[in-house]
Amino acid sequence: MLWLKHCGIISVANSVLNSNGLDQMVARLLITTRNDGYAQGYTECTQYVTNVLKVDWDTSKSATYEVDTEASHAAAKAEYNTLHLPVMNLVTAALQSDNFVVQLKEVFLDEEDDYEDEIRFFLYFLWLCEQFIV
Fold this sequence. Notes:
Blueprint: H1 2-17, H2 22-53, H3 69-81, H4 86-95, H5 100-107, H6 115-132
Helix pairs in contact: 1-6, 2-3, 4-5
């Protein structure tokens, strides 16, 4: 269990964080979130201007004119929520074993690293997830 505490959890976290496609998916999700927020803010602002000035505001020159940012954001969220990380199959199989620590050791080689920096990085990643994932 000492290996799991000092190395195993960090190895699993690093494998998930360094998996192919995760960084591109998170970047895509952030971009679609920003675009959708901009479009909704512009629409809300246009409604206020129209109500206050009692004029029709021309939105045809807006960057979000007739662009369905909500659908692209929903698609990005759905893709993120169904993202398949191959390393998780190995972790799941190891955790179903009676001797899961030995199984995890076989999957993740014991690396001699500075664990404090990795723990800080992992905690920072968890904080980021809470901030950006709805």
